[in-house]
Design goal:
alpha/beta; six-stranded parallel β-sheet; 10 strands; NADP; EC 1.2.1.70; oxidoreductase; 4pyrrol_synth_GluRdtase; glutamyl-tRNA reductase activity
Length: 409
């Protein structure tokens, strides 16, 4: 068994390319089920966020499969030109990537912890659709554990940043403060709530749109007002800033809606969705400034954040070592089981002759042999796993190989 993944993210592809391969929660589950049906694939997890799409699979070692081709089949995409935007990782490289990713060390905003929730959610969806297996289950769980450990033991000095934090900081550098600005957030999912909460904490007057059919069943951040989604264009001219962050496959703000719209003042639009929420052509209207997810890219690392990276990396490496020990042990189990069976059979052959010369009843002999077999298995287990814990990996593998040769015919 081997672990493979393919991925596309904000560092490799623009937003419109990423949008082609994005999944909602519902169709991610369906896609994982279809992928796991392919011969040789034992498990599958799809991680789809605003900034990245990753397809993970545990695959039989003798199986040759292209996860990119499988993804294109799921998305009904026949053009191979997009393959250049993807990266493929296998084995150690794939495992290392996930651990660093879940720890927030590969995010567009270094150290953000939303990705930790997203990795955990991806595992949860896979469980719901019965597409994970032992290897992926343990890998994702241990990666999440590493992320939590870093969050607890290595608190990044600038708190819990997100894209909206970075957007506000960028606007402030340009002389635009959101304090006392009239803001509307379209969408009340995870990203929308973070945006609304952040704007409110920055001193803005925030209104959140809620779908009418759900208006009585949802909560919005404390201190925010609400309007029905259908009223957004009536409220928009009053706004200084609008954030759209939904999982909708359709535009929430379209070009045609702005054709005859009279704005009371200049307005900033921030599109935090992938696929896009705001039609790009909206940005051509006078008085409108439009930003999307890729507008906030930066290579800048705060000095105080840089100081924490070494400690975070140490935790990641420790957790990775634990995973590889588990994986190696998992792969060795069939070999250890065979050694144990051979040892028990060898012992039984040696004890049968003296046992025959006893005056015990046959039933008593069978009971004795059964008890001896169980005891023998425990002794062999204790010796083998004792060796594993007291020797380095290479020496232990040599011991296992030597024991296997002892019973070669």
């Amino acid at each position: 068994m081997s672990i493979s993944m393919i991925g596309i993210d904000h560092s490799m592809a623009p937003i419109d390319i990423r949008a082609l391969f994005a999944f909602t929660r519902k169709n991610a589950g369906e896609a994982m089920e279809k992928t796991k049906e392919q011969p040789g694939i034992n498990g599958c997890i799809i991680l789809s966020t605003c900034n990245r799409l990753e397809v993970w699979a545990s695959v039989d070692e003798e199986t040759e499969i292209s996860l990119y081709e499988e993804l294109c089949r799921l998305k009904k995409i026949q053009n191979r030109e997009y393959e250049k935007y993807f990266i493929k990782r296998e084995g150690h490289d794939a495992v290392e990537h996930l651990f660093y990713l879940a720890s927030g060390l590969k995010s567009q905003i270094l150290g953000e912890d939303q990705i930790l929730t997203q990795v955990k959610d991806a595992l949860g969806i896979a469980r719901e659709h019965f597409t994970t297996d032992g290897a992926l289950e343990v890998l994702f769980r241990m990666a999440v554990t590493a992320g939590k450990k870093i969050k607890t033991e290595v608190p990044f000095s600038h708190g819990n940043p997100s894209v909206i934090h970075q957007a506000i900081q960028m606007l402030e550098k340009q002389g635009y403060s959101v304090k006392e600005k009239v803001c509307m957030v379209i969408g009340n999912g995870e990203m929308g709530k973070v945006a609304a909460q952040t704007l409110m904490e920055s001193g803005a007057d925030v209104t959140v749109t809620v779908r009418q059919y759900r208006s009585g069943m949802v909560s919005i951040p404390f201190g925010c007002k609400r309007i029905n989604y259908g009223e957004r264009m009536e409220y928009l001219p009053k706004c200084d800033l609008v954030v759209s962050a939904t999982a909708s496959p359709n535009f929430t703000l379209r070009e045609e809606l702005f054709e005859d719209l009279e704005l009371e003042k200049t307005i900033v639009l921030i599109d935090l969705a992938v696929p896009r929420d705001i039609e790009p052509e909206v940005g051509r209207f006078e008085g409108v400034t439009l930003y999307d997810m890729d507008s906030f890219k930066t290579d800048e690392k705060p000095a105080e954040l840089q100081e924490h990276l070494e400690a975070a990396g140490k935790i990641v490496r420790e957790q990775m070592d634990e995973f590889f020990k588990w994986l190696e042990g998992k792969n060795l189990i069939p070999r250890i089981q065979e050694i144990k069976e051979n040892a028990v059979n060898d012992f039984n052959l040696r004890i049968m002759k003296p046992l025959k010369n006893t005056h015990m009843e046959e039933q008593e002999k069978e009971q004795l042999l059964s008890a001896v077999d169980r005891a023998m298995e425990k002794v062999v287990n204790k010796m083998l796993f004792g060796l594993r814990d007291s020797m380095n990996e290479q020496a232990f593998l040599e011991c296992v190989a030597g024991l296997e040769k002892t019973y070669e015919k």
